[in-house]
Fold this protein.
Amino acid sequence: MIIVGLSNSYQLAKEVARRLNVPYVRADSRFSHDGEMHINFGENVKRKKIFLFQSFYPNQNNSLIEVLFAANLAKELGARGVNLVAPYLAYLREELRTDKFECVSVKNLGKILSNFVDSILIVDPHLDNLNKYFSIPVHIISSNDLIKHYIKKNYGDVIIVGPDENSQKLVTSLGFKNVILKKKRKDEFNVEFKKGYNLKDKKVVIVDDMIITGSTMLGSVKYLGLKNADFITIHPVMKKEVLEELKKYGNIISCNTIDNESNALDVSSLIAGKIKNEWNS
């Protein structure tokens, strides 16, 4: 077995390799002056079981191309199997056609990846029913226990807030006192909430699987009239300015599925354990 780190997941891949005590290769991904990508493993992978590590943020499109080139390279070099570990997998927020002429991103992603890798391992994907879009095995890892342990260790009497109905499954599974807000999204950057709650004198932690523009998290704080609140997310799909805005209210805690300064929850042990159990290594 060889763990291969691609550009968005070098550090996580290296740590998983250390935990498994297997070789680690940092793929050399370069761009020419005109923007074309070139990949070199720099090592023989013949007859080896390969695990490509790549989170699909930032630069989702380049991330996908890098995975496709690396997967095909591994097969050309005689790898025994090529598996993708995508701690964060993009293009999972759109599974329905709202216009008769538009593409459905998850369907396209499933078809493409299924033709290049033998299996895929994902941490808490935004969609539950991914198997119907992929013709290869899809392995799911939950960060639930990591989040639960962090909350128990760092908070006393706390209220967990889910900022919308989509967060309900995650929030209620944690087992703490919770409130689920009802949200109506106006556009990517603006949301409004329904139904009132009085949490002004409570310690509040707002939990969601992703933070992107921050509008949902910030809207929750303002709607609840809170001067401070902490935020926990699995996938910090956010730019620096979003992080800085959230910092005005409290701490931001994230899993290291995506490299971010808010990373405080390490998923490497979960991934290493899953690989060991599923692939008998």
Summary: Helices lie at 10-20, 60-76, 105-114, 144-154, 168-173, 215-224, 240-247, 268-279. The two ends are 8 Å apart (CA to CA). DSSP finds eight helices and 16 strands in the chain.
